[in-house]
Amino acid sequence: MTEETKDVDSHSGVETTGHSWDGIKELNNPLPRWWLIIWYITIGWAVVYMVLMPAVPALPGLGTNTTGLRNHSDRDLVGEAVQELKTARVAQSAALLDASLETIETDRNLQQFALAMGESLFGDNCATCHGAGGRGAIGYPILADDVWLWDGTLDGIEYTLRHGIRHEADVDTRYSLMPAFGRDKLLSPAQIDDLTEYVLNLSGAEADMDAVARAAPIYSQQCVACHMADGTGDRSQGAPNLTDAEWLYGNSPEAIYSTIYNARNSHMPAWQDRLDDASIKALAVYVHTLGGGE
Amino acid sequence: MGQTTLNIHPAAGKGAPPAPPPNDLYAKRQQIYPKLAHGKFRLVKWAVMAATLTIYYAIPWVRWERGEGIPNQAVLADFESEKFYFFFIEIWPQDIHYLAGLLILSALGLFLVTSLLGRVWCGYTCPQTVWTDLYIWVERAFEGDRAARMRLDKSPMNFNKLWRKLGKHTVWLVIAFWTGGAFILYWHDAPTIARGWFAGEAPLSAYWFAGILTLTTYFLAGWMREQVCTYMCPWPRIQAALTDEHALNVTYRYDRGEPRGPKRKSETWDARGDCIDCDQCVQVCPMGIDIRNGSQLECIHCALCIDACDEMMTKIDRPTGLIAYDTDIAVAARAAQTTPPNYRLIRSRTVLYAVLMIAINTLMIWGLATRATIEANVLKDRSPPFVQLSNGDIQNGYTLKLVNKLSEARTMLIEIEGPEGLNYSVIGIAHDSEGALELPVEPHGVDRYRILVSAPAGEVQRQITITVTDKYSGEADVNRASFRGPSQ
Model pTM? Predict the structure, then answer.
């Protein structure tokens, strides 16, 4: 220890810290009393808080974090809040269950409630594939237009929601299979090339007319059963209309070739396993109002 | 204190504050014991206190019938339905700029009054002044006037001191609670929240704010008092820029008072000032300052020193008004033996404030009188921006929000114009026999409708015009929205 000498500032009479920067010294004033008092209060508060609330994390050997005397849990509080919300909605949810889908869509009060509920449910459950507002994506149908593979009526949409598409766990699911003509060696690549031109021609796109002529017998043999002779498809089998401007998997020759070669049989889960009846009805009305409900 | 003195006249040496001792930069607060003043300004202050407190406590209980289902409280900030009611005025969230206008008006009013009459706001109507005055009145009732209070504070604790102090703080807390409690009445239906509060059924925020305002009232009016004005309030700083030598301020007329000093019986009034250094002006001052030091940051211009001085002048048979509302320029002129100029009401700054106030008032009244009772807002779907229909047409989706500010249900007709071949429909609404779309709108509320608009594919990147018209009154709101399609 070196001997300490007190350096007192002559002007203010306050002891300095002894540090000097270009002759400027720092006064060693005590901390303001109000500041100190608040500081002590915060220390006291910290102790109280640690005793009452979860404060110490799960350290090795401790198992879980401390729960505090109040046994506070944000997770439980959220659960309670969700339950409360459900209770608050019981009356309106019951009204949804009682009303037909048409009534829900035209009754102002039921419609507002169903659309608000449907919008949030759609965002949580459907938008992952179908996009916000049902904007769709390659392989995931656009729900905001008037093109429907299976059924665009309120009841049809509700059925699809309940049972899904090609959802094998549900016996009532909407089901159809297009054969993988190339992969399963039902047609040769050359024949598929010709069929691609035929399909392009059906929708009015430019196509090689020689190939179209070659493909005509193949189409009437292999495709007509589902897509119909004029190519307008069959909704009862979920067979798309090949003559319209809508292409679920793209309208390039490559995309169409790939569809015929591999077949595209996409899936949608049956939502009745996961959502309650009121939610499904609200979703059906919401999807029906997106832009193309029938 | 006193370092901030703005306008010390040369003769003010005696009352000048002592320089702080060099070893201690921290000045401990000196407890102030304001003495009770008697006189016309004290009376005015009692009257203003009674009036402002009555307004504050009574207004939430005033009823104002507006129609069924609408709150009938005259002044109510209704957060639940997002509306603000003020007698016949109803402010919706869309009208929030009126609130900004009101604040601008208040600021300008404060500026105008300050440039004319100095800090009358601080001295008479500021809540801090009013409640502090009320608290000092309670203090005086329990502990006596200045001298008695000083004695009591110096005396050791005994039964007499204990009950007086306890009584004072109890009454203070009751007033504080009443103040905090009255505050929440402005945010809820007063009778309901008052009953619910004591039954333990009020929302948590009501207890929270009642508690906070109880504490702030108790501490700010009971304990902090003049420190709020001196250290916490920005207004004393701002007012320095607003007042000038032409403003009427509470002023010690040094031209008449100096040289001051105690007067012996044998002495005549010749060759000396009227100020006899009786210290009455200092003793009644709630801010603990000496007005004879000139205009000061701490001075709230409550005019109690005028009352005290006038009382004393009457006693010693001198004319009153040694301390009075006067302008700096008049005092300086008399001190220089010249004729003081007349008080000038019309100066560039007062005219400017007045003109601005009239302009904003006119604008707001005009706006309120002509504001629409129906408001249509069109929100275009952002996802998807458009879809192509099976027939090749382009379709866009919109949400229409109809705000009905009247307390009756209305029927609106909607018409949409835009690209040729345009079609539109409203979900859940069928065309009537004449082909019009009628949208029912709830009284006093907001209705949402979903609209689908389609047009042939060639017509893209265009605007549509959505016109909503009241079927009966003909009041209309026209909105434009974009209509998108694939870029070509």
Answer: 0.69
